[in-house]
Amino acid sequence: MKRHARNLLAAVLCAPALVGMAACNKRQQVIHADLAQAGYQLTTADWFRASRDNHAAALKYFVAGGFAADTRDAAGDTALHAAAQTGAEKAADYLLGRGLAVDIRGAAERTPLMTAVLANQSRMVRWLLRQGAAPRLKDKDGYTALMLAVREGGVGPLGELASHTREDLDAALLAAALQGKTAVLDTLTKYGASVYARMEDGRTPLMLAAENGHAEAVALLIELGSGRFTTDAEGRTAADLATQGGHPELAALILKKPVAAELTLEAPDTIAAAMDAYVEAAAADVPGVEDGENASGLGGGGHNARARVREVPAALEGKTLGAAGVVAAGGGSNNTAAASRANAGPAGAPLVMRHYREREMPVAVKSVQNDTATLRMAGPTPGEVTVRAGGVLPGSRLVVVKVQRRMRSAKANLGKLTEVSVVEIKDTATGVTRELIAGVPSSAHDPVALVEDVTTGKRYTALPGQHFRGADGAEYVVNDVRPNQLVIAELATGTVRTIPLRGPRG
């Protein structure tokens, strides 16, 4: 009797649990059935497959079936990494909603953003950046997402990352030159990397490409304006490094006889037009941008760059930027003045820097004696020529106007005055004059930047010493023009602002 009572009590006590187990089993059966209908089984392998397939609804069934959102595969990746690999935005969005961090680390300490870069998923890179992914994190080997894109040659991801990693673009360009990644070099320069960037030892991208035998990269860098006659800290040119690296054919290419265009002095409006044309062409077609979308940070250019009214950019001197009520160049909903102001320089500066240019000349002053100058001409067989005042440099339209020696301060002499040889030349076609000074690299013009009004999209050329105003009346002066930045100062407050080179697409 007692035994019967105990069994009856146990049955009563266990009944709710049995009912719950039955319900649970039924629920699991439904989940299995739903997954099977979607083409999946309740396994770890299929959890990751559903993520790659962008099947967010299936992922919900997995979670209902007890799968943790942060489940890892054998390599240590999460389903968010799997979604990033295939560009599965819906799946990724669901996983972020389940609490996964956008920068969760996986195999090799890589984030989903890095995974998307390695898979060449440009749109997913853009999407992850919009979700707050940090682009400057490094994996276990020290690679950032940008450097992984350089290594893999992924120009699409590069374009998405560029506006988020401006401070790293020059380093990326040097790495691309070292590896001979021509398409990467072309892309990076369009987003603001400078062909005048240097390693700590003074080597430029051209020098690195030449030293390592990358012929296509050398040709492109020369086309983009890299100085053929620039020297590193040891006084070596790109041609010298090509020769030392066992690439005499590249040395010959770099040391080719100067063409007529290299022995000219261009008028300011010619320089401005050439810079504007470069920016216009580069900004016209932005890979990977959908119709109706504005490329990251284009402000004033973007898809509608073709529609921009073409005019030769004027000098920045005396101009007032940010005219009220003017819609940014090109029109359209993506190019409003407000959108352009959102892309303004640091601390609301009224302009952005789009392009930089300097041009070395293949001639250097060695010495002067009375009215005669001795000049060294670069080329496959460098040599010296002597020219008197009134004479013409061989193979050019440059006439020697004046030959003199005068006192000049120099950093090499700690600012002390030193007597130097100076030759003034004139381009007979353009009327432009220029002084060449012994011991100083000869250039065809002062460094010049092409800048853009963030409100109107109008472009100007900027030189050191120029003054301009913002829409609020604040007056600025250009302190310096550098390969990768413009330095301006607000006169009333003395506040100095650095405007980074954003490039045509930046």
Number of strands: 15
Separation, N- and C-terminal Cα atoms? 89 Å
Portion of residues in beta strands equals 15-25%
CATH level-1 class of the largest domain: Mainly Alpha
Radius of gyration using CA atoms only: 31 Å
- Kindly state the mean pLDDT as a whole number? 85
Number of helices: 17
* Class computed from helices, strands and strand pairing: alpha+beta
CATH superfamily of the largest domain: Ankyrin repeat-containing domain
Shape: elongated
Instruction: Name the strands of the widest sheet in spatial order.
Output: 2-12-13-14-15
CATH topology of the largest domain: Serine Threonine Protein Phosphatase 5, Tetratricopeptide repeat
Unreliable parts: 5-19, 288-307, 324-344
Q: Main β-sheet: number of strands, strand sense, barrel status?
A: 5 strands, mixed
Count of structural domains: 3
Percent helix range? 25-40%
CATH architecture of the largest domain: Alpha Horseshoe
Chart the SSEs and their pairings.
Blueprint (H helix, E strand, L loop, with lengths): L1 H37 L5 H9 L3 H9 L14 H8 L2 H9 L14 H7 L3 H9 L14 H8 L2 H8 L6 H11 L2 H9 L14 H7 L3 H9 L14 H7 L3 H7 L13 H17 L29 E2 L3 E2 L16 H6 L8 E7 L5 E7 L2 E6 L5 E6 L9 E12 L7 E11 L5 E5 L10 E6 L5 E4 L4 E3 L5 E8 L2 E6 L5 E5 L6
Parallel strand pairs: 1-11, 2-12
Antiparallel strand pairs: 3-10, 4-5, 5-6, 7-8, 8-9, 10-11, 12-13, 13-14, 14-15
Helix pairs in contact: 1-3, 2-4, 3-5, 4-5, 4-6, 6-7, 6-8, 7-9, 8-9, 8-10, 9-11, 10-11, 10-12, 12-13, 12-14, 14-15
